[in-house]
Amino acid sequence: MAQQEDVFKKIVSHCKEYGFVFPSSDIYDGLGAVYDYGQNGVELKNNIKQYWWQSMVLLHENIVGIDAAIFMHPTTWKASGHVDAFNDPLIDNRDSKKRYRADVLIEEQMAKYEDKIQKEIEKAQKRFGDAFDEAQFRATNARVLENQEKYDALHKRFQEVMNAEGGIDLEGMKQIILDEGIVCPISGTRNWTDVRQFNLMFKTEMGSTADGASTIYLRPETAQGIFVNYLNVQKTGRMKLPFGIAQIGKAFRNEIVARQFIFRMREFEQMEMQFFIKPGTELDWFAKWKETRMKWHQNLGFGAENYRFHDHDKLAHYANAATDIEFHMPFGFKEVEGIHSRTNFDLSQHAKYSGKKIEYFDPETNESYTPYVIETSIGVDRMFLSIMCHSYEEQQLPDGQTRTVLHLPAALAPVKLAVFPLTKKDGMPEKAQEIINDLRFHFNCKYEEKDQIGKRYRRMDAIGCPYCVTVDQQTLEDNTVTLRDRDTMEQRRVAISDLRGIIEDKVSITSLLKKLL
Ligand code: ATP
Q: pTM of the predicted model, to two decimals?
């Protein structure tokens, strides 16, 4: 685990050193859980967004996009339930003065029991080798049974307090923390305050106070911008059910515990798609979207073993199915995307609060009804983090040296091709520029002439550039260059006229999208 944390720290500093992610307002020492994307980060982020947008809007005839404003009428958030219920239960440690999410403290305690079980299993696996029978071991080993019993009891109590009548049972939650002997990781004490609810929405005011300013919120999710536009899009686009509306945009949450870099931010970006369907068909569509979204993730080639579904047993009162797609980060399997069957909750609430009729007239059955919704909701920044974590490698080379390389999927890489003149003379820089001038319309190219070729390769490896081309003496004679592959480091001689054909297909988002069909 300590080793994994080390790797994570290195990824965070790599992101800063190579222009991917900077702390916000860095010269003023940053702002808690807010980050800026640098020259390479913004390219990677844009490519992720393009991969998602095109997979939704280009590949589905019945999905269209919108771009709703961040500020919305305040009643939106009353109707959606966010004003009354978008809360996190928080608890303070009186000695360290640190604040925690009470539910997270309990979940971490459950993870500790799971870890202990896993360690016993791994030890036994090593001892027994091929003869190891995990099911039998789990059923008979005393230490495993003891930890499983503790886990089950805690899980049951946790479910009870989270699903208590009238909302979360805050006293019950504190009691669990005391009974489990959970200590503050900073002070090491159990000197806890009571658990309180804390609303995560940022508030501001619109208009001047003299004219009676109204309180408005920075949206905590992009979804409501879609729901309030359902009628506009359905009518003007003459959309027939089932159909979807996709949107990419910023969301804001005043997260209490904001750590793990860009995993949990106060300002972040979401890619959400609400799919409107006929009531009664939701579980089929839920299953279909689970499969479609998992395929989108796995299509990046990071290995199926690094993903899993985490089906919710605690459902929001309006949902009838929900799952997370989790990715194996250096700090464990963590949610990257949520898929929710939201019934007709949001549209009905907006109908109620706005007084407008929000329904769909089904020409096949001649009836009107409020559509049901399946939502897919993914964080751009978490996706960015998962890609960075999986791509980062400190590689030992056969000659004893090491290199830091980002094995980014070529279609997502910020720079696709770097072109180097071997030396700064004999017309090599001009030739290199000529190549770039020709290819820059097709993909992002970069020119580099400083330092030895080896150093230039390393700099490109560190930003995940999949291809480097070197112009040398021979190029001036026969118009061929060496083309070097980032992952294998192999170099081959190719004609300049073949470069576009060799590279374009490998680095285009289109090639990724084609694999989805
Ligand atoms: P968590 O349980 O981690 O707080 P959530 O279940 O509240 O997340 P959703 O409301 O389902 O998250 O939001 C959908 C997606 O938005 C998440 O899967 C995640 O990728 C992203 N997301 C949510 N909150 C944040 C945040 N604070 N920072 C970055 N991304 C976020």
A: 0.89
